[in-house]
Design brief:
Layout (H helix, E strand, L loop, with lengths): L2 E2 L20 H7 L4 H8 L5 H7 L4 E2 L5 H11 L5 H4 L12 H8 L4 H8 L3 H10 L4 H16 L3 H14 L6 H10 L16 H8 L9
Helix pairs in contact: 1-2, 1-9, 2-9, 6-7, 9-10, 9-12
Length: 217
């Protein structure tokens, strides 16, 4: 029972540090309306309460001032059904009006095509500029993972696919450089080894391939 309020922020920003949405995040992204999952996974967009509900990351909006009363009612009743009595209409989602533009761009088969579809509009150009700072490898793998989760929904298969990437992320991925840029040196200038327009499909496939049976845990 996922409750949000006005100050709630929800995001999957892993591509910024060279990872992919994990902990089952690709399952949620794969179930988001249209191509919103690809958009949220690649951009790391921070959703407010209305957006989180629209995208399927939250269930109900309850103003924070009502939380003490809701907690007391839950304790007394022992029934999560009482949440409905406290839920209010959420703030409008800023993503809903953009759904058609998001779908058109983020249905692209690869990153270069996606960027090309974004750039003609002012909104798209801003999104493309933000994507330029993310790990190309992580973004390409996120595209594949979200689409795999849409084709084969469920938390368990999503976790299996995500682990294939995260298990390789330090040795073969961009995680070390992403952590350096964002956490250690804090220069916010990651030097990614791959470029968006030259990233090979073989490199993406290698990160997402099933792990060997003897892979160390």
């Amino acid at each position: 029972h996922r409750i949000v309020c006005d100050t709630s922020k929800v995001a999957m920003p892993e591509c910024l540090i060279g990872l992919v949405p994990d902990v089952g995040g690709t399952h949620l992204l794969g179930q988001a309306p249209g191509r919103l999952g690809e958009y949220l996974g690649l951009t790391g967009h921070r959703m407010g309460p209305g957006e989180a509900i629209h995208a399927g990351f939250a269930d109900a909006y309850v103003p924070e001032a009502d939380w003490p009363a809701l907690v007391a009612r839950l304790e007394a009743a022992g029934d999560p059904g009482v949440i409905a009595g406290f839920a209010k209409a959420p703030p409008p989602s800023t993503l809903a009006p953009l759904q058609a533009e998001i779908d058109a761009a983020f249905a692209a088969p690869d990153l270069p095509t996606l960027i090309a579809r974004l750039e003609p509009s002012d909104w798209g150009a801003k999104v493309a500029a933000g994507l330029a700072g993310q790990s190309p490898l992580s973004m390409a793998c996120t595209l594949a993972l979200v689409r795999a989760a849409r084709a084969e929904p469920g938390v368990a298969p999503a976790l299996t696919r995500e682990y294939r990437f995260t298990a390789r992320s330090m040795e073969f991925g961009d995680l070390m450089e992403g952590i350096r840029a964002q956490v250690i040196d804090k220069d916010r200038r990651p030097l990614w080894p791959d470029a968006i327009d030259s990233l090979s499909g073989e490199r993406v496939a290698a990160m997402l391939a099933p792990l060997p049976r003897d892979w160390p845990l």
